[in-house]
Amino acid sequence: MVSIKLRSRDPLTVGEVAARSGIAVSALHFYESKGLISSTRSEGNQRRYARGILRRLAVIRVAQRMGVPLAVIAQALEQLPKGKAPTVADWRRLSAAWRDDLDARIRTLTMLRDQLDGCIGCGCLSLRACPLRNPEDIMATQGPGAHVGEASAKCR
Ligand code: FES
Known about the structure:
Blueprint: H1 14-21, H2 25-33, E1 40-41, E2 47-48, H3 53-65, H4 70-78, H5 88-120, H6 146-155
The protein binds FE2/S2 (inorganic) cluster.
């Protein structure tokens, strides 16, 4: 058996990327189909990845854990140089934007949870009165307090 030692700049096979990143080959193909990562082809028409792909994949996975949609991740990564690992400065910029988005989602989810608290004991699901059915309702901005009771009374 001939052992070939890889040089540190040799491109990686899809199997090597999967092993090093902990991401399934099928997921790597999916990411590539969505434009999140890219590869070149070997003489035998097999995928080859620049080593910077590992850091790029780490960014993708962290963003996914934060609930960033793949389309948004793809847009962000499009702004980075192809085939190069995201730098620390790239990460700072991307993660700061995603943190703002995460804060906004937390605020929205907190508001929805508070509204749901008011709706749990109600059940009217009224288009006029229920803040979850009608999120633009002015009363919904006042929280699930007394007006929810009023809404329940109106629906009876
Ligand atoms: S179920 Fe939402 S206010 Fe009645």
